[in-house]
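Summary for the funding panel

The consortium committed to producing paired sequence-structure records for every protein in the target list. Below we show the first two records in order, beginning with the earlier of the two.
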Amino acid sequence: MKNLWQNFNIFSWGLLGATLVLQPTVAQAQYIQRSFLNPGFESPGFGSAGQQCYVQVDQSLIPGWSTTHGSVKAGTGDCTGYTSPGLVPLIEIWTSGFLGASTATNAGNQFAELNAEQASELYQNICLIKNETITFSLLHRGRSSSSVADVTNFLIGLNTDPTSTVFGRFSTTNDGTVTVQPIAQNGATIPTVSNNNAGNGWVRYTGTVPYTGNSATQPVGFAAVSTAGGDNTIGNFLDEVQFAGKPVVEFTASSGGAAESETNPTTNPPKLRIVGLVPTGGISVPISVSGTAVLGTDYNTISNTSTFNITIPAGNYDGSDATSVFTIPFTVINNNVPQGVRTIVFNIEPSTSFFASSTTTCGGSPTIASSYTIYDDDFLSGKVWDDADNSANNTFTNINTGSETGTNAGGLLNAILVDSNNKVLKTTPVAADGTYTFLDVPFNQSNVKIILSTTTGTVGNTAPAPSLPSNWVNTSPLTTATFNTSTNISSKDFGIEQLPDTNNVSGSTTTNPGGTNTVQVPTLSGTDPEDGNLGSGNSFKIVSLPTNGTLYYNGVAVTANQVITNYDPTKLTVDPNIDGATTIIFTVAAVDKAGKEDPTPATVTMPLTASLAGKPQLILVKRITRINSQNLTNIVDGRSDVSPNAANYVASPRDTDDDTSNTWPSSYLRGLINAGIVKPGDELEYTIYFLSNGLGNATSVQICDLVPVGSTFIPTAFNGMTPNDGGIPGADQGIALALGSSTPTVYLSNAQDADRGRFYLANESAPSYCGTNTNGAVVVNITRSPDLPSLVKDFYGFVRFRAKVK
């Protein structure tokens, strides 16, 4: 490898060992260029080992270099494996010894001929910074004459551009004679040189060039001026050409970070990028640190102080990641203490050894500060709360209210961190106060979640199912929503609570009141671990209803699974469906303040004995149900609190006989109490309704109704209607009877025969319970053996006859 540095010694760049690799082979286009790349034309190598030859190739084949050469002739060459590129802009490369021209001492194996097939320019595009001074060096040699020099210009800009700036002219013969000392122009400084000072006819020229233009990328190179023989296709050998200002330095990124468990940061630590030529001995880049992270507590630098230097070795840096990036050395202190997010800010401090400038935009603003965030991977993930009032309501918000405390459900709970594949990342038992902490959580994990389980997870294995100990229920989900572990995490809270227990209740033996009378239910009770004793003012759920009675709360029938809130023991009653000895049984579950019910309902048992005084009772209600051929369908309630002249007036205490509190079928009592004014000849239908509503069965039931004065009984009202009831065939039928029906079930004759009914003429001796018979009496035996020996509770029916107004 050529020593590209010996020519810089006189400019105090220091010495570089000859074995250093000082040139990248290919520049990366995304970075600026601050020095010549491939300055010795060594890449690529041509010919076989030791072969003395030449080639003319397309400019794209020579890394770093471009030319103004025109496409005037197809390239030629005699190196092994050479193929002509055709008519293209040519760069001509010779190997050492070809036609007697060898490279300078220790100058490698290849060099360029500036005049390939015409006078042209070889150049590279260099980022120049306003008001900087650039150092340059080159080897120059003539080709064809020992007395007449080949001449070339070193310039900024292209030789075809009249605004280009020539800063040096060099004249050298083929034996290294300097016919004219180098001419410095436009502020350049070029020392005097001696003949053949680089050996083999080569002369090394060096110097400096001031640049006063705006910061910009400019073509910098060599333009052929003349050749010894005047032939523009022969002359001006060039080698080991370098043109470089101070290197440019900046951070590769403005931020990075990783978990504190990454004690020697490798994920994305701050890095310096350098572009340009670093002289012998290298340079030092001063770095300072600041930020919220604490030096010595959260991290350490290589100096253990807030300032330190990064040494950049000598080299020719093109900005590429492979060769031109240097990681800032520091260490992170890992511990098991939740500390949150902390940031270190690294700053490039000013220096005369380099420019702090953009490495991607010539003269652009540099990234001189790079922050590194230390993410705490020891985080208090959350707490399990005994959510006694269910304030979470199956969410993860508002879990803790009032004086609620944390819990681990008796030491049986585990918090488990699970990855996106449902594999366990971390597992830890929940502490007695409900808290749990994960240590050294894997960083940058996406879509993780935390679950609660009574089963301990095994890292790397499939996560166990979420679960709680017996008699515990969740008020929040037992699995969190997914999240990422890229930041410090806290408040991953859960809500759970214990279930209540309901006490069985056995009431003392009570007499069955019969009828529609109700019995108060014994007081319900229970206990809850969070709420204490449960009773009046709490909530109870009626899980199942009694099969032989109707439960009422505050007078309204209770339905199965009804929850009674703010329970008042005096309002829960039962109406037995059987008027006698029976046992009322139903089940109930206490509901705690969290709205959770006892999963094992308790039983309420109420033994009832038969009443010793179970006497029967019959209610009679009379209505006019037809006038002439018009049926009256009115439903009228008798009232005693209205005027005696009112159409619905009934004297007390009979006014309540037709109330709905009695067990009349719905809409059964049709007709009018007062039909208004009628005229002679009008036919009226009278219906006497009856209902058995006593505590015992009614036996020997007979109904007698006197035909109203001013009217005459119609003996043939129901002639021809069936069925009959054993009366004399063909006898007149003036009486209808309904048993448990809203329509007549049998029609009775007026005569004294085998059926149930009989009509007594006016003044005829009637049963004594009829009273004085002055206008006729209708008598019906309701009960009869063996078909209807008695009327059970709630049995109903009616007797009906018709009369004509006189």
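The next record, for a separate protein in the list, is shown here:
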Amino acid sequence: MPGENLSRDEARERAALLSVEGYDVSLDLRSAVGDADGEPRTFRSVTTIRFRCNEPGASSFADLIAPSVTAVSLNGKDLDPSEVFDGTRIALEDLAAENELVVDAQCAYSRTGEGLHRFVDPEDGEVYLYTQYEPADSRRVFAGFEQPDLKAPFRFEVRAPEGWTAWSNGAGELTDGVWKFAETKPISTYITCVVAGPYHYVTDSYSRTFADGTTLEIPLGAMCRKGLAPHFDADDVFLVTKQGLDFFHENFDYPYPFGKYDQAFVPEYNLGAMENPGLVTFREEYIFRGKVTQASYEARANVILHEMAHMWFGDLVTMAWWDDLWLKESFADFMGTFGNVGATRFKDAWITFANRRKAWAYRADQLPSTHPITADIRDLQDAKLNFDGITYAKGASVLKQLVAYVGQEAFLEGARRYFKRHAYGNTRLGDLLSVLGETSGRDMTAWSRSWLQTAGVNALTPQVLLADSRVAELAVLQEAAESHPELRPHRVAVGLYRLTEGGALERYARVETDVEGPRTVVADLAGAEAPDLVLVNDDDLTYCKIRFDAASLDTLLEHLGDLTDPLARALCWSALWNMTRDALLPARDFIALVLRFASRESDIGVLQMLHAWTHTALDHYAAPDWRATGGALLAEGALRQLRAADAGGEHQLAWARFFASTASAEPDLALLKDLLDGTTSIEGLEVDQELRWAFLGPLAAHGVADESVIAAELARDDTASGKRHQVRCLAARPSAAVKAQAWAQVVESDTLSNALVEATIAGFDQPSQRELTAPYAEKYFAAIDRLWQERSIQIGMDVVSGLFPALQDRPGTLAATDAWLAAHEEAAPALRRLVLEARDDLARALRAQERDAQAG
């Protein structure tokens, strides 16, 4: 891995020296099928690059990661591959003003989701290929200049096995056995794409006539593996796609610039999706094999719109280097929800954003690795780790604050000017701020410094003084952590709520105001009737942690379920969860609130988030000697709600999954087994294949389902999805031999694909098996440095984060982590970052456990 890195300084030097005129890439993928003769499977890649050099006679390099290079030619002169290629770079000496580089290489198919991934479907033996490059894996498929600011047009051609179809960014046609694709607009290397195989492919079209009378026609396509075709609801994918294209055309005033719009749902995908222009790739889990809640459909629509927004923010206009990754990801994350609310049936998407996406941001922003939204990205390893909750969710939250600050129309007009001014180019922070300053009339410098160039999250707390049952003075107190003391300007709404005679908790007053400094008086609320609840950041206009005054907290502890507004309720749940994470609220009290009020939660996405938080509260934040009691209470409460939920409804499904995940007592496990066997049933609950695996997981983890039962389930569901579930269940069994085998498969071997590595890790670490996995804490620290050196960065990240002994939550594990960090000060910064983040989570858990024990 270390030799594959590229520094920001190297990229800047190369960008100053070179400009690229075009690529021709020819891939021969016929080796994807058939016998590989026991050798590593490779494919032929021939790349021709035409580029200029501003300083003739200078030297540079091209990027390529390949097992071997057959030939290299520079300006018609053959070079010795053994002399110019070191496994990751091709040295280019004595460049001319105009250059042509031709590289003929044997590149490797991937099993890690990086580069050209090869997947064999266990259901029918069919082979499927797709590429995934961000931030720098196109060099695993073709030679190039792997940095975002060296954009160029691309022409691809693909030789594929007979009967296959191939797709790329441009429209393609099959000519004399070769798939040839139209030349792209100038784009960065990391958003080029190839998909090939016997995919199930569905087509549609989009048309829009603009005010000037011109009409835009966009061919639409959507694809998945043949095995998933019976589950593929392409009509809904196309519906959201068309709604999104209408929405962005109306708001961006710049026609979609990349011709066709294909969307490929592919197996063993590391990301949620990737914005390759003309050929967006998604993880195939967005095709639902069983019944799911509307939250899953909303999430898919959000991702579709997120990737579509990238066609403008990221593809048309691209950041110059990964420092400004936010210029695409923060905007796409914001636009995904903005578009969902504005264009689709998911009108409550801002509730999901407030409750789910922001939770990701709050965690990331309190880690020792927190960073400004505009980050300091020294190299590609930094870049890989910066696809995090700050770049995405905090950035999107800050943009939501910016819209409140400058106004929606000024914000959108700034985007329109930005696209037209920088189309097919690369930008930095100042380029966007300048157009926003133009359209809003505001000086963006101070706003940018506070929100984009500093790290950390502020906490806002109301301070209420009463007189004669009226508000004498209401102020908002702002705090910041000592490590990141910046107090920011916040545009907030402050809401006052009271209990009605009917028992509802409703808002009766609301004021928008600017909060600055440590204390801001909200003068417009003076004289208002005394509230039962003060909600700072009502309507979720800013990015902050919400705190409560004592009276408001008391109200919530007794009446949270009486809040009638679903967004206000989601914000209060989020605030209470942050208090639990910060050891201000005992974990058992948060669990009690969930048991008492979650049944009244109307928003299914919020309910499912509460279930996830409750698991974390029990497994990591509750005092160890209370966990058994808490687990029993949760299982009892989950079963009660499962039986009480409307038959066949999505709340019933959510409670069924939660009950399965909490089941540990013999009667509960027996019920799961009976539901699987069909000897009992719950009215309205359809135990489809995905729910069967959800029930089988805890049965395996508690020793009720053995290898033969798991094998029988795989025979029932002998698919790629079934295989992942089987691997997870096998690794979850409570046996020392099972844990040793799982550890060896992930740590001592590299034969598992990325998806099966993920499944094995998920099964290995079970909260009920702390004693079984305790010996692996020491082994973890002995192995991770070697793993980081030997594996790809994606697998390295999965293993280092996934196998950290978080469940060995005692001071000794914290000391062992500190000892490793002290002994490995020279380890790769990205590796140290992952360990530091895991250490911080562990330290937070120990503080929360101490707080919970005090409440016992």
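Regarding this second record: The radius of gyration is 28 Å. The chain is about 45% helix and 20% strand.
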